[in-house]
Amino acid sequence: MKNKGWSGLKDTDEIKKAIEVLEQHGWVRVQHNSDTKGRPSETIQIHPRISDFNVFEN
Description:
Layout lengths: L11 H13 L3 E6 L7 E6 L12
């Protein structure tokens, strides 16, 4: 689950907590994929209208 460019998130637990907060507020949806061979995986879907919001504009 750890990805490059996730500055400020030190470990997997912090990443999971951040994703949970984003999911609670409707910014992302976590899809659990257990129908694959091997260990289960997760896909994180970003809200399709995220580009409508410019949260970084001053």
